[in-house]
UniProtKB/TrEMBL annotation:
It holds the Pfam family pP_pnuc_1. This is Predicted pPIWI-associating nuclease domain-containing protein. It comes from the Bacteria. It comes from Paenibacillus bovis. The lineage of its organism: Bacteria, Bacillati, Bacillota, Bacilli, Bacillales. Residues 20-112 form the Predicted pPIWI-associating nuclease domain.
């Protein structure tokens, strides 16, 4: 029953986390006395810590320029810095504000009010549980379950907002002329052809880690192919391509200056008579 609260975020969890989450949630069906409630709280807190430690490990968090260890309260179960890392990794707030026009201070405020404070309040000792009426303990436990599921969804949604904003900026700043210069230099281009058009189809972030940001550019090139001899057929050739590039993970550029890896993912050619040739 309670597992359904996590249906929309299960893809964010690994196998062990799913197993431990299921084990903890099933304890909610057997609330009969304070000890049972206490056992649920311990199990669920363990799951929350396990998931957050994986998506925001200490070794990476400590490498972030924006992270301030002194601001953390060791008595709290969930720290906002860990949630922020899960959202933005090493990205600086200055980059997010200046380049993406997103205000992370508002995100931090919403995280504190909606999720972190209520979840940190759900930290009962066995004695505290024993003094709670069963109905109240059940209700507060269920609220904690829903809050944590919603927190995971919030992390994914906000992270996706950052990605989409950055992808949009890249797409706006990529000049077809610059791509054409890069692509024209490769030996893969057809002989006796002239580049006619570069069509940008998609810019997508594929990875953001503590070390680097990786994104791909997919698109299509159009060439006019000139007949070298009388028996040759002239026509138009389409090359589909994928470019992969890497950048800083704290303040990446929003303009393309270097494309280190190029992959061709398909080609078609049409003759002057309109015949389609598979290449």
């Amino acid at each position: 029953m309670y597992e359904e609260q996590f249906d929309h975020v299960l893809h964010l969890l690994n196998y062990n986390e799913k197993v431990k989450l299921t084990f903890a949630l099933r304890k909610l069906d057997h609330f009969e006395e304070g000890e049972h409630i206490y056992n649920f709280a311990l199990s669920f807190q363990e799951v929350m810590i396990m998931i957050l430690d994986r998506i925001a490990p200490d070794k990476d968090l400590y490498l972030c320029d924006w992270y301030d260890r002194e601001q953390e309260n060791d008595e709290e179960l969930i720290h906002i810095a860990r949630i922020l890392y899960a959202i933005k990794n090493k990205l600086l707030d200055e980059f997010i504000m200046n380049e993406l026009n997103l205000d992370m201070s508002k995100v931090s405020e919403e995280l504190e009010q909606r999720f972190i404070r209520p979840l940190n309040d759900f930290n009962y000792t066995q004695e505290e549980y024993a003094r709670l009426p069963i109905a109240q303990a059940q209700q507060e436990s269920r609220q904690a379950v829903c809050l944590f599921a919603d927190l995971l969804a919030y992390i994914e949604h906000t992270r996706q907002q950052l990605f989409e904003a950055y992808e949009y900026q890249l797409a706006q700043n990529i000049l077809p002329a610059r791509l054409a210069d890069i692509l024209r230099s490769t030996r893969k281009l057809p002989p006796q052809s002239s580049l006619q058009a570069v069509v940008l189809e998609r810019v997508r972030i594929t990875s953001l880690t503590i070390h680097e940001l990786t994104f791909t550019i997919t698109g299509r090139l159009t060439f006019d192919r000139h007949a070298a001899q009388a028996e040759d057929s002239a026509g138009v050739t389409w090359y589909r391509f994928r470019l992969t590039t890497y950048d800083s993970s704290d303040y990446p550029d929003t303009d393309i200056t270097n494309i280190p890896r190029l992959q061709w993912i398909g080609r078609e050619r049409r003759t002057i008579q309109g015949e389609l040739l598979k290449c």
